[in-house]
Design a protein that fits this description.
The protein has one domain (46-55, 80-360). Helices cover 5% and strands 32% of the residues. The chain contains three helices and 21 strands.
């Protein structure tokens, strides 16, 4: 976000923070929503809303103390996310809202792709979406070699690469949040606090039981000790199924960043969570305002969503694989054309910026 001008406005002051609280957490440079690097946690569905980490280890129908007279197995969850309608018929395309498999592991789809055109009048505004099935996928956070800035965290906690232990299960990498100079949003991984939390911010939290949490920091702060990591962003685009009030009032708001010359219809990225807690939703929008990407995330089923990085060079979602069985692991596809980093980025070539990566929970040979 080097070429980004960030407006000074933030959400109204929030009463609860924990800037001085040091939680008890696992040390280390990488945090995972699955709380492991080499083990394979339970992949059962979660029963949670967007404000609490989803406990994916015990589905409700299988807990001890359940109905004694239950004779039938619970219905299987749907194979993928439900299709959805574009918010405006005038600009909708026939393919909008239809999910197709994007990445598989052991024959099962774990990532799905769809598109949506969220503008009421501009047909060129498009958001590409990835649905990430948290039943079978773990989410991790890695610090970049330079970002976020910190005067206390040692270089050893800034690997900028996916740990070798996770290479076999690696599915994809997505960009992280804003540069420190553009808002000084907080981040913690394990015991390493790179920047203190900021009031009024939204935050993405990785829970110790495998859940993903996206909520205003005021709601996340009391539960910080339960999180193995968190990354702050500008104010939540979507919270409890509703757009941020500023987006309702101002279609071209600059409160979520703009280009160097003030343009607000730029490339943007976001991460959201659906109402069930099963699907995380990544969105990458071309020539989108903050409201447009928020509308796209909301249409896809996100009940909470946070804006990640913006502008051309820093927004990406890349998939990993082996072109042949004997070939080394490499980037094999980019979600959006012309955003491909070098093939061994995030593996051998460190990233200066923080990023999220996604791994299969299934055992790998």
């Amino acid at each position: 976000m080097t070429r980004t001008r960030v407006a000074a406005w933030m959400m109204a002051s929030i009463s609860t923070t924990c800037a001085g609280k040091e939680p008890v957490a696992r040390p280390g440079p990488v945090a995972s929503s699955a709380q492991v690097a080499e083990a394979t946690p339970d992949a059962s569905p979660a029963d949670a809303d967007e404000s609490h980490p989803a406990d994916a280890s015990h589905p409700a129908d299988a807990r001890e103390g359940g109905p004694a007279d239950a004779k039938e197995s619970p219905p299987r969850p749907p194979a993928g996310p439900p299709s959805f309608a574009a918010p405006h018929g005038r600009t909708a395309r026939p393919e909008d809202g239809a999910w197709s498999p994007l990445a598989r592991r052991d024959g099962s789809a774990l990532l799905y792709q769809a598109t949506v055109h969220p503008s009421p009048v501009k047909g060129h505004v498009e958001v590409t979406l990835v649905a990430i099935d948290l039943q079978g996928v773990a989410v991790h956070l890695v610090a970049g070699t330079r970002e976020p800035m910190s005067n206390t965290v040692p270089p050893s906690a800034r690997p900028g690469v996916v740990p070798a232990a996770d290479h076999a299960a690696l599915l994809a990498v997505a960009n992280g949040g804003w540069k420190t100079e553009h808002g000084r949003f907080g981040m913690r991984i394990g015991a390493d606090r790179f920047q203190a939390p900021r009031e009024g911010a939204c935050a993405i939290g990785l829970g110790s039981t495998g859940g993903l949490m996206i909520a205003p920091w005021a709601e996340m702060a009391p539960r910080e000790a339960e999180l193995v990591a968190w990354r702050q962003t500008p104010a939540c685009l979507v919270h409890r199924g509703a757009l941020h009030p500023a987006l309702e009032r101002e279609t071209l708001s600059r409160n979520w960043g703009a280009a160097e010359k003030g343009e607000v219809e730029i490339r943007r990225s976001a991460l959201g969570l659906d109402a069930t807690g099963r699907f995380a939703l990544f969105g990458l929008g071309e020539r989108t305002s903050a409201k447009a990407i928020a509308d796209g995330m909301l249409a896809a089923g996100a009940t909470s969503a946070a804006e990640l990085d913006i502008n051309w060079s820093f927004t990406r979602f890349v998939l990993f694989g082996r072109p042949t069985p004997d070939a080394p692991l490499t980037i094999v596809r980019s979600l959006v054309p012309k955003t491909e980093p070098s093939p061994r980025s995030y593996l051998e070539r460190p990233s200066e910026r923080d990023f999220f990566y996604f791994t299969s929970k299934s055992p790998t040979p």
